[in-house]
Amino acid sequence: MVTRWMWECGYPLINKLSYYMEVVKKGWFESCSLTDYSKYINQMLTDKHLYKKMQVVNVPLPKVFPVDAAPCFGLTNKKYDFPEIFLTVLNSAVVGGGTNFILKENVILHHGLYDFDRDKTSEELHGRVIIKLRSKNAYWLINDKSPIRFEKAATFLDACAGNYSHWLTEVLPRILLFCEDERFVDVPIIINEGLHPNILESLYIVTGEKRDIIALPEGRCLEIDHLYVVSPTGYVPFGVRSRKSLDNPHGVFSQYALTNLAMKMQDHVGRNDKLSFKKILIRRNTGVRSLTNYSDIENLLVDRGFVIIEPEKLDFREQVRVFSQADIVVGATGAALVNLMFCKPHTRIIILMAQHNHMPYWYWQNIACAVKCHATYVLGNIIKSKSLGIHGDFTVDPKDIIAAVDAV
After folding, report:
1. What are the residue ranges of helices labelled H in 140-284?
2. Which residues have C-beta within 8 Å of that of residue 182, sequence separation ≥ 6?
3. What is the mean pLDDT of each run of 10 residues along the chain (408 residues)?
4. Does the domain at residues 250-406 carry the CATH identifier 3.40.50?
């Protein structure tokens, strides 16, 4: 409980106190209107270039084991409208390291999938903005005394870009759409500084060798005369403001954008017979949400012809090759599972996950459906670190895994 309180309450409180200390020393930060940039460009009659019209996304109920856990997903299939994907150009704008918010005069611009009453942002946790929910105003706290100016650049900064799953679904598909647009081949792109080598490897496949890339560290800003912005291709919140909320976000994703990225990567890396395994089990060596009886499950599935893979020990190309050649994938929820988006259509994905009132059950199903894969869930119970909520360690019944593997 203490750990969770410190993360959810203590850390943001420290950042707010730091903010008010800065106010005393340097004067009041200007309050800015918090505005959806799609509405802003409509009001300002700014041009936009359409990449994809709004899509209706149908997500069927997945198979669930044990059967009595199926109500966790509700009783009906899901359906949502993914908004159009477009590019626009903002004149005289400021971007800051570690955030996709954009400062333009006295307005902080954001994409339209945010629901600030529901969504907790990484920017607030790390002291980059303060958001006032009642007024829908915000304070920009990235205080760079000497921002660098560029004539033009495209921003792909994101608070969650360092997370492999967020990167592959929310950032890299947007970069691909931009880099495929021949009108903007001479426009540099801006990314977070300090990204993992595997993330950078995926980036260079998309950008090629000639694109100029600006890596912006946290705490620094850039002033851009002509800022190119690509709207979201996917979104899941960093967190939620209240654990009492019944509206737990499970993520929304563009089928067009994710499929486009998957095809790009599959075509680029090609096949490798040394990494051609039809049945794979993902082994996780780090992080929370540990599967405590994993060794029992591993022994059981190896006897059934599964090959153990450790994505953490593979480079990006190797991960794409392994997943793109598999017929069935079994793995516990975690960032490495996002590689399912590189699987062939109709690949069977078996996801091991704990039952919890705030678990985003549909997250993996939403991604799987975007790339035409079939997800099955095996749900277990949290048995350790319950104070961590959905991130607690858990166990699943091996009999349920075998039932899922054997299901047609």
Report:
1. 164-166, 172-179, 197-207, 255-269
2. none
3. 48 53 52 95 92 96 95 91 97 97 96 93 93 94 95 98 97 98 97 98 96 97 98 93 66 96 94 81 76 91 95 95 96 93 96 90 95 95 72 90 91
4. yes
